[in-house]
Specification:
Layout: H1 8-22, H2 40-67, H3 76-87, E1 92-96, E2 105-110, E3 118-123, H4 137-158, E4 163-168, H5 177-183, H6 186-189, E5 194-196, E6 199-202, E7 214-223, H7 239-253, E8 262-269, E9 281-290, H8 293-314, E10 317-322, H9 334-346, H10 360-365, H11 374-378, E11 383-384, E12 387-390, H12 405-411, H13 414-436, H14 440-450
Parallel strand pairs: 3-4, 3-5, 5-11, 6-12
Antiparallel strand pairs: 1-2, 2-4, 7-9, 7-10, 8-9
Helix pairs in contact: 1-9, 2-4, 2-13, 4-13, 7-8, 9-13
Bound molecules: zinc ion (2 copies).
């Protein structure tokens, strides 16, 4: 996807042109008539000192979520903790279980300065089976909560207009919570203009660009006919053979796959009751990924032929089910990313924060990895989903990436918490830019519209 932008050069020009204009404090006069004409550096200082002042409160929220990992759509403790925290703060209107989704919520702070942009943050808080918070979603919740509260504080101090909304978005690891929220009209009803969040990674992987893949899942069951494997094998239909054939056909197809076409699957059952009985049932689960939705549709179609081949060759009946809520690739809004890079650099160099971001052109070339339901949101609203690196508390880099035990341990540490708070400062600064920089939201939307067609461009 990012390798194949036909008019990428013009977008990069826009990106740098905007970044250059934004870096001049004199050009940053507020669009809010009641706010002082001050540069964003001042806002950044305010965001920073506010978040430092409440960092201990966040530490409690962060560690409570980390210590109580909850799976998709069961995140009741996290939901209650976050909504109670928000409801106790002045000016926040909290809707628990918004739109009937039990562990989702929306919290709104309305600026006193009238209408204006609606900036939104997402807080994820679901965990992984057996591994707990090995994806660090407790840190995503921390960034979202901190980013939203800090933005609101600047709005309050300067009488800004507009709104900031914090969404609690359950079930990212499985279940597609944001897709359910999209379908329920949550983001539409809160009329958001931009969607902001950030995800942890191991230290050294910081980027403003989350290049993620489109993904779908399927379940396949073959049904055959049992028979004595020696007395009358011809009377049986071997479901296990159907699955083994399909599995091997998938393995062969990999040779003809595009660079970002992936497939991984597990055989869930198929052995039958005994070695001398022809197995009459076999099941498997597969996950497909590709650079974008168009490639994924093509890739999935080719894989389904492999499953059909297993049924055709053996005579077994195939029942193939696509799981709902596939994830789309994430596209990063260049204008929001430029703002983030600017604030990232402004806060870089403080204790333990010396990393640098790759420039936009380099970041876009990084091959896509993993998948997120923020991808689906990014095709509906301008999105920013930076990755931020974390350390162990002894200063070492976690020995495992997300979805490993070392990353789970690091995610619960004080060092990772401090990283999340730092990221909240940077992300809140992007939100304040959207609220205060004349013309920025227009540029964000222009870039969003200009890149809409890329969803249908297959990687070549
Ligand atoms: Zn994950
Ligand atoms: Zn994650």
């Amino acid at each position: 996807m990012a390798l194949d932008f036909p008019f990428k050069p013009s977008l990069i020009l826009l990106f740098y042109a905007f970044g250059a204009a934004s870096s001049d404090p004199s050009a940053m006069a507020s669009r809010q008539s009641s706010a002082p004409a001050q540069g964003q550096a001042s806002y950044l200082r305010e965001l920073s000192s506010f978040l430092d002042s409440i960092s201990e409160d966040f530490w409690h929220v962060n560690t409570e979520i980390h210590r109580n990992p909850e799976l998709a759509f069961q995140e009741r403790k996290a939901h209650d903790l976050l909504t109670s925290f928000l409801a106790a703060r002045q000016g926040w209107n909290v809707t628990r279980s918004t739109h009937g989704i039990e562990t989702a919520f929306a919290a709104v702070f309305k600026g006193a300065g009238g209408d204006g942009p609606v900036v939104s943050f997402n807080a994820e808080y679901d965990a992984l089976p057996d591994l707990g918070h090995a994806c660090g979603h407790n840190l995503i919740a921390t960034v979202g909560l901190g980013g939203a509260l800090a933005t609101a504080e600047v709005m309050r101090t300067h009488n800004l207009g507009g709104k900031v909304v914090l969404f609690g978005t359950p079930a990212e690891e499985s279940g597609g919570g944001k897709i359910k929220m999209l379908e329920a009209g949550v983001f539409r009803d809160y009329a958001i203009d931009v969607s902001l969040m950030a995800h942890a990674d191991v230290a050294g992987q910081d980027t403003a660009y989350a290049n993620t893949m489109s993904t779908d899942c399927l379940d396949v069951t073959y049904t055959g006919k049992p028979a004595h494997a020696a007395v009358a094998p011809w009377a049986g239909v071997n479901a296990q053979d159907a699955l083994v054939l399909a599995y091997n056909a998938v393995a062969m197809l990999r040779q003809q796959s595009r660079p970002y076409d992936l497939v991984h699957g597990i055989i869930e059952s198929g052995g039958g009751p005994a070695v001398n009985v022809i197995p009459d049932s076999a099941t498997a689960s597969f996950m497909m990924r590709a650079a974008n939705d168009a490639d994924l549709a093509d890739w999935t179609g080719r894989l389904i032929k492999c499953f059909e081949a297993g049924a055709l060759a053996t005579g077994a009946q195939m029942n193939l089910t696509m799981r709902p809520n596939g994830y789309s690739n994430h596209r990063t809004n260049d204008v929001l990313a430029a703002s983030y890079a600017k604030h990232y650099n402004a806060l870089s160099g403080a204790k333990g924060t010396a990393e640098t971001l790759p420039d936009a052109a380099t970041a876009k070339l990084k091959p896509p990895q993993a998948s997120t339901d923020q991808g689906n949101l990014s095709w509906e609203y301008p999105s920013l989903h930076p990755m931020f690196g974390i350390y162990n508390d002894d200063g070492s880099i976690p020995s495992g990436a997300p979805h490993t035990r070392p990353f789970e341990a690091a995610s619960g540490g004080r060092s990772a918490h401090d990283r999340a708070v730092l990221t909240a400062k940077r992300l809140a600064a992007v939100a304040v830019d959207v609220l205060t920089v004349e013309g920025m939201l227009g540029e964000v939307k222009k870039e969003f519209a200009a890149t809409m067609t890329f969803n249908n461009v297959a990687f070549r």
